[in-house]
Design goal:
There is one protein chain. The protein is of the alpha+beta class. Helices cover 52% and strands 18% of the residues. It is built from 17 helices and 17 strands. The strands form 4 sheets. Strands 1, 3, 4, 6, 7 and 9 form a 6-stranded mixed beta sheet that branches. A 5-stranded mixed beta sheet has the order 12-13-11-16-17, sandwiched between helices. It has a 4-stranded antiparallel beta sheet with strand order 2-10-5-8. Helix 17 links the parallel strand 16 and strand 17. Helix 3 runs antiparallel to helix 4, helix 3 runs parallel beside helix 12 and helix 6 runs antiparallel to helix 8. The chain starts with a helix and ends in a 10-residue tail after the last strand.
């Protein structure tokens, strides 16, 4: 990977080597309908910004080919005059659109001369409100008319607080409109894809309340708005004549959106604090610095150049700080780290290209102007995959929490020996059942005490006693309906809750069925053991409408059964007249 980066830097340096070929006259006509004017450009610097057109015309001999990458004069505080000689053939079309395809240029004064006579003068640049521009386009453009078979001289005075990128072209109106339409479609597709990702991330943030999705949305919104501004679509389609936004939008979208969101997103996505707390502090400090710089620029306390320099210096920091952490995560088999590294692989090329472009090191063409945009979109797609992994992790965590909660609830409501509901579980089942009882739809609560259990437990030991209790539980379950509940209150006391019984006779039949089920012996400690049941029961709502009353009456009936000979069924009725043997 390092070799690839070094090779890329070497290619950038080779591309930035200035071409020293002598300038030529720009010929309009023939089959060429769109012409790059830069090969014909010569330049005259105006350090004091005081040269007038007359002074420049008097110093034609001082113009020289610019020793810079193609159409990129870099960062300059001075004004610059560009001279382009033009010759039209006898068959050349008359109308041509001159365009400078860099929206951030502040001011371009154009003079068209035929000999010594100025035949056209126009003012271009972002300093001019969009509604007052000579040609409504995302580029700085103006319509020119040339007589066939004539020689002209184009002089452009360029002054800007941004990078002086000056890709000058001449094209026929038909070709210009076709190029403009392709650019609009491309940027529309890119913005549409970004908007879909933005809405998705905001929706996930609202649903999951995970700030990582909000940080991603902030970074994505800032990056998208930066490109909208960079390619001149902001003034054309969004804010129109707003001088403040035309001046401030590009740095602010990077500082307050892309960088603040990017720093915070990376810190949270990689859980940097868990591995490198100092790096986490660095990322948060970077977000704070970007936000502070953006605030100072918004308040006009620092100028455009300082804001642009800050954005350029801060831009690579999130990636540089977090690459070691992402590598550790990837080595540990975590997909988030791998996706981050893949995304940054291409993003680094795009970021280097943009930095080189803004610092005046890289020639201007379609690929260098769009490399960072394509790379950013690819990185955002990788980050979207990171969000997908995050959603998977959140779902898995929620599922684990749900299972753990169910397990804890089960422990709290289940008897550890028999796996039957305990007293708490029984109370919940009774609470649910009592709301659905009626005189013709009763619920029976059978309180069961084992006859002869203590003797077996004392004779064979506690392990055999536990085995006997488990076998009792299984036999009770096998005797009852699937809708009935069997619970163990402790010791050798069990409770059966039978629902949806028509009357007391049905409850008595079920109780007798339980007694009959224990006429056969049970296995415990390798021996066959006989235990009997003494059962007291109460009916809801006939004998009580709450859990405590029903259990008290069933317990009283069971105690009475014990006193009268055991292995019997007794009802704890609401009145003595309802008592049943």
């Amino acid at each position: 990977m390092l070799f690839a980066y070094f090779r890329y830097i070497a290619l950038l340096l080779l591309a930035a080597a200035p071409a020293r070929a002598a300038p030529s006259t720009l010929v309009l006509g023939g089959n060429a309908n769109a012409i790059d004017a830069w090969p014909a450009v010569t330049m005259l610097a105006d350090p004091l910004r005081t040269l007038s057109l007359e002074h420049v015309l008097a110093r034609r001999a001082a113009f020289a080919p610019p020793q810079v990458p193609h159409a990129n004069l870099g960062i300059r505080r001075e004004a610059v005059w560009l001279r382009i000689p033009v010759h039209t053939t006898a068959t050349a079309t008359r109308r041509w659109l001159l365009a400078v395809d860099y929206a951030a240029i502040d001011q371009i004064d154009l003079y068209v001369l035929n000999g010594v006579q100025t035949v056209r003068q126009a003012a271009l640049g972002r300093a001019i409100p969009f509604s007052q521009r000579v040609w409504p386009s995302s580029k700085h453009a103006v319509m020119l008319e040339f007589e066939p078979g004539q020689r002209y001289e184009l002089l452009l005075r360029v002054q800007t607080s941004s990078t002086m990128i000056v890709p000058v072209t001449l094209a026929t109106p038909e070709v210009f409109h076709a190029q403009e339409a392709r650019l609009q479609v491309l940027q529309g597709l890119m913005a549409g894809a970004a908007l879909c990702l933005l809405l998705y991330s905001l929706t996930q943030w609202v649903g999951l309340r995970d700030s990582m999705f909000l940080h991603y949305a902030l970074s994505l919104a800032g990056t998208t708005l930066f490109f909208v501004t960079y390619f001149g679509l902001g003034a054309q389609h969004l804010w129109g004549d707003s001088d403040w936004l035309s001046e401030h939008a590009a740095p602010l979208t990077v500082l307050l959106g892309a960088l603040v969101g990017g720093f915070l997103f990376i810190d949270r996505a990689l859980r940097v604090r868990d591995i490198q707390p100092l790096v986490s502090h660095g990322l948060r400090a970077g977000a704070t610095t970007a936000a502070l710089t953006g605030g100072l620029f918004a308040a006009d306390l620092i100028d455009y150049r300082m804001a642009q320099l800050s954005a350029t210096l801060l831009g690579p920091l999130p990636m540089l700080l977090a690459i070691p952490v992402a590598w550790v995560r990837a080595r540990a088999g975590e997909r988030i780290g791998a996706y981050m590294l893949i995304g940054w692989g291409l993003y680094a090329f795009g970021a280097l290209t943009m930095v080189g472009l803004l610092r005046g090191y890289v020639p201007v063409n379609f690929w260098t102007q769009h490399a960072f945009q394509f790379a950013s979109l690819f990185e955002m797609l990788m980050w979207m995959r990171v969000l997908g992994v995050r959603i998977e992790d959140l779902r898995a965590s929620a599922q684990r929490a749900h299972l753990e909660r169910d397990a804890l609830r089960s422990l709290a409501h289940t008897d550890a020996l028999t796996s039957l509901p305990n007293r708490r579980g029984l109370n919940e089942a009774l609470a649910r059942t009592l709301t659905d009882c009626a005189p013709d739809r009763v619920a029976a609560v059978f309180l069961i005490d084992l006859d002869g259990f203590k003797a077996i437990n004392d004779r064979l030991g506690h392990d055999a006693g536990d085995e006997l209790l488990v076998n009792v539980a299984r036999r009770l379950e096998a005797t009852l309906r699937s809708s009935d509940v069997v619970a163990r209150l402790g010791g050798d006391e069990f409770v059966v809750l039978a629902t949806a019984l028509p009357d007391n006779e049905a409850a008595q039949r079920l109780g007798q069925k339980l007694l009959d089920a224990f006429r056969e012996p049970l296995m415990a400690g390798g021996q066959l053991c006989r235990v009997g049941l003494t059962i007291g029961y109460a009916l809801a709502p006939l004998d009580g409408r709450d859990t405590l009353t029903l259990l008290k009456r069933a317990d009283a009936a069971m105690y009475a059964g014990k006193q009268s000979g055991r292995h019997c069924l007794r009802r704890g009725a609401a009145s003595a007249g309802l008592a049943t043997a």
